[in-house]
């Protein structure tokens, strides 16, 4: 029913020739409210065995994934650790997909990372997908801060010899993340309605999650 209402509203927006920005804001708000209205309880969440976490760089998703893994006692996997080899060299795509599929075949996991081209295989398999779309300015600030801040040694999210970097591709990826993921989310939500989806727009929403009752603010 929600998807039908959404499609009707999108059609109305297109007929009115309103901007893409308006459509994006409505979609983000619509599904965020829908997901939080039907929020899983903490006990229900503990029965979920496969959780995918995706989001803008600097949004705090890896920190959240670590704390969630500790609370739910689920094994944590970071995609960047298999997407890149030493010195930030990209893994061959076939090898990356094979390694990712091997994780997905296990019965219990939290997978932290984006790789939007392969998001569908995680989305279709996950019990819950959490998307972090925090404001760009906040993510850029955190990216800059972590460049000079000592990393949490518990966050083992990259291959060896991969120090923190700030470069144009990272800035561009962060800036355009919402524009690229929103159409993909719409498609995946309609294609796999059984997957629970939660969209995070702020740190306050992170703390409002049932699984965050015992978690500190990121």
Structural class: alpha/beta
Strand order of the largest sheet: 2-5-1-6-7
Q: How is the biggest beta sheet arranged?
A: 5 strands, parallel
CATH class, named Alpha Beta
Tally the structural domains.
1
Straight-line N-to-C gap: 34 Å
> From the alpha-carbon coordinates, what is the Rg to the nearest angstrom?
17 Å
CATH architecture: 3-Layer(aba) Sandwich
**Helical stretch tally:** 10
Basic shape? globular
Assign the CATH topology: Rossmann fold
Report the portion of residues in β strands. Answer: 5-15%
Structure explained in plain terms:
The protein has 218 residues and is of the alpha/beta class. The chain has a single domain (2-207), classed as 3-Layer(aba) Sandwich (Rossmann fold). Helix content is 52%, strand content 12%. The protein has 10 helices and 7 strands. The protein has helices at residues 2-15, 20-37, 42-46, 61-72, 80-83, 93-104, 119-123, 136-148, 168-191, 203-208; strands spanning 50-55, 76-78, 84-85, 89-90, 109-112, 128-132, 196-200. Strands 2-5-1-6-7 form a 5-stranded parallel β-sheet. Strands 3-4 form a two-stranded antiparallel sheet. A hairpin with a 3-residue loop joins strand 3 and strand 4. The protein is globular. The two termini are 34 Å apart.
């Amino acid at each position: 029913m929600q998807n039908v209402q959404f499609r009707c509203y999108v059609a109305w927006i297109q007929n009115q020739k309103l901007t893409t920005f308006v459509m994006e804001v409505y979609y983000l708000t619509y599904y965020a409210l829908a997901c939080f209205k039907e929020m899983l309880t903490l006990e229900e969440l503990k029965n979920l065995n496969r959780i995918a976490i995706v989001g803008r760089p600097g949004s705090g998703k890896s920190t959240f994934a670590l704390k969630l893994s500790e609370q739910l006692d689920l094994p944590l996997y970071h995609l960047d650790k298999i997407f890149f080899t030493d010195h930030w060299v990209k893994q061959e795509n076939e090898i990356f997909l094979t390694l990712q599929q091997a994780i997905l075949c296990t019965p219990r996991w939290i997978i932290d990372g984006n790789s939007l081209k392969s998001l569908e295989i995680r989305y279709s398999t996950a019990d819950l997908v959490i998307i972090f779309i925090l404001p760009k300015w906040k993510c850029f600030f955190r990216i800059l801060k972590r460049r000079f801040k000592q990393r949490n040694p518990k966050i083992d999210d990259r291959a060896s010899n991969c120090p923190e970097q700030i470069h144009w591709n990272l800035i561009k990826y962060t800036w355009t993340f919402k524009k690229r993921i929103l159409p993909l989310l719409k498609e995946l939500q309609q294609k796999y309605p059984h997957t629970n989806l939660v969209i995070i727009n702020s740190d306050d929403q992170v703390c409002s999650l049932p699984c965050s009752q015992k978690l500190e603010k990121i």
